[in-house]
Description:
Number of domains: 2
Pfam families: Abhydrolase_3
Keywords: Hydrolase
Protein name: ADCL4 protein
Number of helices: 8
GO molecular function: hydrolase activity
Oligomer: single chain
Structural class: mainly alpha
InterPro entries: AB_hydrolase_3, AB_hydrolase_fold, GDXG_lipolytic_enzyme
Amino acid sequence: SHEKICRYIARESESVVVSVGYRLAPEHKYPAAYEDCLNATIHFMKNIEHYGVDPARIIICGDSAGGNLAAAVSQTLAGRSDLPRLRAQILIYPGLQALDFNLPSYQQNRGVPLLFRERAAFFALQYLNGDALHMQEVLEGSHIPPDMRLKYRKWVGPD
Length: 159
């Protein structure tokens, strides 16, 4: 689905673009997609001379669920001394936060097409366990234990 835009980016930026065809939810639950992206990235980075790419110019990018995966892969690779260092990550409307679907951004954009608040929660559940039976609990925020909510309120909160 992204071949045309990847070709455009490669052509306009005069760069090599590698697009990973990772396994999709709900058929393949977490961490399948993450493992696919991580393994493909590591393979690319270990064989970079084969692709004629400057190791100092590697950027990881993704949109939506791919933005989530790009962020996770970037974090995993950040401390690796056996691989080239990433130059940057580009996250386009990434799915990064599923702790609280009642934060101001979710409330303000709850009716904005295409990714309605309920749809975002549905996709998060599909990604994690392929089961949307607990949708109401997720929307209410009762899927997170109170002690975890307290622990992360500094980073995930309306402030």
